[in-house]
Each structure stands twice: as C-alpha cells, then as structure tokens.
Write a structure and sequence with these properties.
The protein is an alpha/beta fold. Helices cover 37% and strands 17% of the residues. The protein contains 12 helices and 8 strands. It holds the Pfam family Transferase. Keywords: Acyltransferase, Transferase.
Length: 372
C-alpha cells in the first residue's frame, strides 16, 4: 500500500531535522549579531523576521492529487543557498535517497567569520513602507527575450562583438531592464520637483551575492548559514539625462550603461573581497553605506535577490520534480525576486512595489516589450 504523502513528508522532515538541528530550535535574541543585522530584526512588519520560530512548514494536499509545500525559514539562521540545500536534503530523505545527502556543516562559516563587535552600529531596515499599500506581481521573461537583452547590451556596451566574455549574464541583463523601468516610474513622480533637487537624486541597485562560489577554493553548498554580501550599483539621474543623440541610440546607451554598473558591482565580490571581509571592517562599512542611502531623501534603492541557477527544481520528494516554485508576497516595497522557470527556458520576476508605482511599472513599454 502506497504511503500517505502527509506521513512521508512529516516523517522525512523529522529525520532531516536531526541533521539540521538548529532549525528545530527557537531563537533567543541576546544582542545584535551579524545575522540579525542582515535580517533587520527590529521591524515586525517583516513577515517572520521577529518570529522566534526558526522553521515553519505547511503542506496542502488536494483532492485532485496536487501537493503544495510552503516553507518559511528564518534569515537569522540561513540564506537562500542554505534554504535550498535543506529543501533538497529533505526531498532526498522523503524519496529514500539518503546516500545523496552530504551532512550539513554549521561550523564552517562561524570559523571563517567569527562574531565581531559592531561598535553600537544599528542598521536601518529596508522596510520603509510608511503605511503604503504594497503590490507584488509576477513577470515572465523567456530566454529568447533575455538573449535579445544581452545582445543589445553587447552591441552598445562594447565594440568587440566576437568577445563572448563581454556578454552580461541573464540576471545582469534582466536586472538592468527592471532597474531602468523602475527609475523611469520614479522619475515620473519627480516632475514637480525643482531641477536642483532632481539633479542630485541617486538610484541604486542592491544585489545579494552568494559568497561561497566567490571564494578560492569555493565553499561547499552544505556550509549552512548566512554567507552572502550585497553588490551596490549606483546611477545618478544625470547619467540618464536627455542629449542630442537619436532617441533609440540614447535608450540603448542608457541600458548598456546600467548593465555595466550592475556587472561591475557583482564582479567586485571576489575571493580578495571575501578575505577582506574576514579581517577588516569592510562589511560594516558596506552596511553603513546602505543605511545612508536608505535614510537619504535623495536616494532610491531597488533590492534584488536571485535564485537563478540554484537547483530548487531538483527537489523531488518522490512524486516528481516541482512544476512551480515561487515566493510569497513580500511586505517590503522596491524588492525584486528572480527565479528560473521550471523548464529552465526563462526567468520569473516577482516585483514588489507600491500600488501607485506598480500601476505605471507594469504598463511600461520597455517592460512589455520583453515580458510574456
């Protein structure tokens, strides 16, 4: 007799938590730690950030045979890489493939990055909604359209068309498009502002980057914890000012310029920088920089997190691979979450903006030209 999916999931989860034992506990906050700094723990509007529950799971089994597994994990304990490794190991346990599991290590990261005195620094949260209504919508970008974006940045961004190394990644190309549309929407709200105020306004992209793969040699995926840094790309309004060029050429130039900014920011997170983070105040200085932009009325930040290329669609619990992986609606504005489609032939973007901004963003002609 075939086992009930509910029983299989519950039993395998229990077995998995014996290996991932910190996830079976509860959090007791003693002082501001590095993981709490990253999570913005003092703001209850962030779903789950202030919860003492480290891990929560909800399983829905439908009469038609479908199963939905919802998982919440505290960012105080794990980042996206750790979360996906946990899901894959749970799935392997459920289907009886224990031999495919490499035991998680909770000692690697603390040994590389021991807790440090933050000298009283308290970061500003990215949760600055101020009572605004937040809307989250999904946009699908197929690979053919993303390839077109990459080609455009290649043609306008450099002259060595045959140099494949000059192509941006899919995430870089798509992030630049979303950033450009977001800036257009925001600048539209500033039409009534004085030219002086508008001229100094800065737009920034904050991109989470997994540092495990940036180290030499790279850390294994079973190194559990928070092991990421943020890449920050900035663009002044003057970078996108009108000039005498043809409008089409101007649009291409502005887009490729944003691609280059994002690519350069992400490339700066390399083995050398990771080593500096271990021995200097580089991370603290980065967080102070982000805080300055958050609190400045002259800066607007757009936050990206990418799950692209993470093997989340390989999580087979014994009934086949998932047909759809998605994120719940975010309570935070100006956030973009990217993930591969189940077929691997595109990227789905979950964009969280204010209701006012979303109405203009989703109808932006440049966005519509590349979405399905």
């Amino acid at each position: 007799m075939e086992a009930c999916p509910h029983d299989v999931l519950k039993k395998s989860l229990s077995e998995t938590l014996t290996r991932y034992y910190p996830l079976a506990g509860r959090i007791k906050t003693i002082a501001l730690s590095l993981t709490e700094l990253l999570a913005g723990a003092d703001h209850p509007a962030a779903s789950g950030f202030n919860s003492k529950v480290v891990l929560a799971v909800q399983v829905n089994i439908f009469d038609g045979g479908g199963i939905v597994i919802g998982v919440h994990i505290s960012h105080k304990i794990a980042d996206a890489s750790s979360f996906i490794t946990f899901i894959k190991d749970w799935a392997a346990t459920a289907r009886g493939a224990i031999e495919q599991i490499k035991s998680p290590s909770f000692e690697d990261l603390p040994s590389l990055f021991p807790q440090r005195d933050l000298m009283g620094f308290k970061p500003e949260s990215i949760i600055t909604n101020r009572g605004e209504k937040i809307v989250a919508k999904k946009f699908l970008f197929r690979d053919s359209k993303i390839a077109e974006l990459k080609k455009r940045s290649m043609i306008t961004g450099c002259h060595h068309v045959d140099d494949v190394q000059e192509y941006p990644t899919r995430v870089e190309a798509l992030s630049a498009l979303i950033w450009r549309c977001f800036m257009d929407v925001n600048q539209g709200k500033e039409e009534g502002a004085s030219s002086a105020a508008a001229g100094v306004r800065v737009y920034g992209v904050v991109h989470g980057v997994n540092m495990r793969t940036r180290m030499v040699p790279p850390l294994p995926t079973n190194s559990i914890g928070n092991m990421y840094n943020v890449a920050i790309a900035l663009s002044d309004v003057s970078d996108n000012a009108d000039d005498d060029d043809d409008q089409g050429e101007q649009d291409y130039h502005q887009y490729s310029n944003l691609v280059a900014k994002i690519r350069d920011a992400i490339k700066r997170i390399d083995d050398k920088q990771v080593r500096e983070l271990q021995t200097t105040d580089a991370f603290l200085n980065c967080m102070k920089q982000v805080t300055e932009y958050i609190t400045s009325s002259q800066a607007v930040l757009l936050y990206f997190t990418s799950w692209c290329r993470f093997p989340i669609y390989e999580a087979d619990f014994g009934w086949g691979k998932p047909i759809w992986v998605t994120m719940c609606k975010s309570p935070i504005k100006n956030v973009v979450w990217l993930v591969d489609t189940s077929s691997g032939e595109g990227i789905e973007a979950l964009v969280s903006l204010t209701k006012e901004d979303m109405a203009k963003f989703e109808s932006h002609e440049k966005l519509l030209a590349f979405t399905s």
